[in-house]
Each structure stands twice: as structure tokens, then as C-alpha cells.
Amino acid sequence: MVSIIKELYKKILKIIKDYDEIVLVRHISPDPDAIASQIALRDSIKLTYPEKKVYAVGAGVHKFKYLGNLDKVNLSELSNALLIVLDVPNFARLDGVEDLEYQAILKIDHHPAEDIIGDVDWTDDTKSSTCEMIANLIMDTKLVMDQKIAENLYIGMVFDSDRFLLQNTSLDTFKTVCNLLESSKINFIPLYDNLYERSIVEEKFRAYLVNNIEISENKFGYIFVDADILKKYGVEPTIVSNQVNNFYFIKELICWMFVVYDERNGIYKANIRSRGPVINEVASKYNGGGHKFASGCRNADYKVMEKLAKDLDETCKDYITKETN
Ligand SMILES: [Mn+2]
N or C: which end of the chain has fewer CB within 10 A? Predict the structure, then answer.
């Protein structure tokens, strides 16, 4: 029997082999899974094919510096590049490849498919992280692994699954972790310092969220953080998306939405999580999207956020009615 995944690995290796210029891209506002998968695959390709020019691009994020450096490169000088798209399904959210005229796309992602379709395409929205996919790809092919690559892949898997708590954490996830730890012998406990260390300022802001979240009778939680609150607590808008995962397992919540006003970009950003109702279909009605139980939405009009919140509250109500019948 021909294994589908082995055929796919062959195609992935072939397209990587075929190009001497390779650019790896991921989504804007990156998280550790996005950056770690990008840096890990770049480093592995460089170790396997030292003669290739391989660049991981996009805006750097100071707090993820420990994952490694991104490349500064003039993309308009490349003429025959393969674009590797990681952890993002749509062109609108690609970070930093506007000037690149690429020849082909290799896509590896665990979000539901959107408008990017790779010439070679490995999209699997049952996977808990892109790093899980890259870890298997490297371990099961001639691509080279080293200690730093293994550490990055482990961090990405732990982050995106929220320490193996979230939906899509599977037996395969644990097998991947087991194989990775066994083969690389990385010391994984110290890695948590980078991932989970936080300031008391952030904790105080979390207390603000806990004290001010509004919870409906349908177990829907909502909070809007305006620019004044951010100033008062001395935090950046991105803090709100960092906090949304801390609200899992609160008995009174099955779905929650945090909205923050990003003054610099003049836009409202919503982060939504769910422990039951499917939310990406609701978010997509308002030009948002994401995973079934972890979605987001951006809009310059606050009224859209209010409508989305109302829609989600209704979705929670329907979900509870179905559950109890
Ligand atoms: Mn991811």
C-alpha cells in the first residue's frame, strides 16, 4: 500500500530540492508556533542543503528572540524563489513578502484552508500545531535535525496546544513529542522559562480582565479594552491576545471574546475562544476566521464587534439548548 503521507513527504522534499532560493513566510502578529516552525524549517533546510539561499522573513518580535534570528533580505533581488508558507491559510495575513516574485508555493499549515493553495500543499486542520507537522516531516525524511531545531519545534507544539490541553491534541501529537524527545535528547524543562515567564504588570492586567469580564446567561464572556485602560496598566494591545487562553476551564464560560482597540493602527481586534460552540463560522461572517474553537476578527468599526458578540451569544444559547435536549 502506498502511504499518502510518504508520497506527500516525497513531493515536499522534491520541491525544496528544486529551488536554490527559498523564502519562508508566516502570519502577521506571529505566535511561537508561527516563528518556531519558520526558523526550524529554515535551519533544517540550510543544514541539509548548505548551498541553498534560505531566508525566514517577517517582522521580528522581541519577546520571541530566543527562538532565533529572522533574515533581513531584499526580496526584490530574488527571481527564482520557492515560497514556503507556514501556519497561515490566506494571502492577506502573510508577513513581509509583498516584494517577492516567487515561482511556486509549498504550504504547510493546520488552519482550515482559505485562499492559499500550494503547488505542493499539506493542509491538515486536525493537527495541533504547524510545528507538529514540521517535526514529523524532519524526523521522517532526510532533512537534518539538531538540538536547536528540536527545541524550537517542542516550544511551538507546547504553545499552540496550550500544554496539550486544547482540541486537536491527539495520540499523534504525543507520539511526535515522544519521538522528538527520544531522538534529540533535548532538556525541555528549562524551555518553559522563555515561554511562561511574565511580569507582575501582566498579572495585574489579567486581574483587571477577571474583574471586568461580563458573562451572559448563555455562558458567553465579553470584555472591551480601550486605549485608556491599556495606558493605565502600561501594557500593549497584544497583551489582550496573550491573555485569552488563560480563561479556559472557567465553569461559567463556554465562549469568550476579548476586544482591544489598537490606537496605532486604528483598528479593533477581537480574540475569541470556545469550549463547545464552533466559532470560526460565526467569525467569518464578519471577515474574521481561524480555528473551530480559536478565532479572531479585525475591524475599524466597533459596531461590527458588537454585532459579532451578539451573534456569538446567540450561538452559545443554541449550543446550550441542543446540549440540554
Ligand atoms: Mn499554529
Answer: N
CATH topology of domain 4-195: inorganic pyrophosphatase (n-terminal core) (3.90.1640)
Cα 87 to averaged position of ligand 1 atoms, centre (Å): 5
Å from CA of 110 to ligand 1 middle:
7
What average pLDDT does range 115-122 have in this prediction?
Answer: 98
Q: What is the pLDDT of residue 1?
A: 54
Tell me the CA–centroid distance for residue 208 and ligand 1, in Å. Answer: 28
Q: How far is the CA of 130 from the centre of ligand 1 (A)?
A: 5
E strand map for the chain:
21-25, 53-56, 81-86, 102-109, 120-123, 214-215, 220-225, 255-262, 267-274, 289-290, 294-299
232 CA to middle of ligand 1, Å? Answer: 31
pTM over 0.70: yes
pLDDT tens digits for range 55-110: 999 999 999 999 999 999 999 999 999 999 999 999 999 999 999 999 999 999 99
Q: Is 200-324 CATH 3.30.420.40? A: no
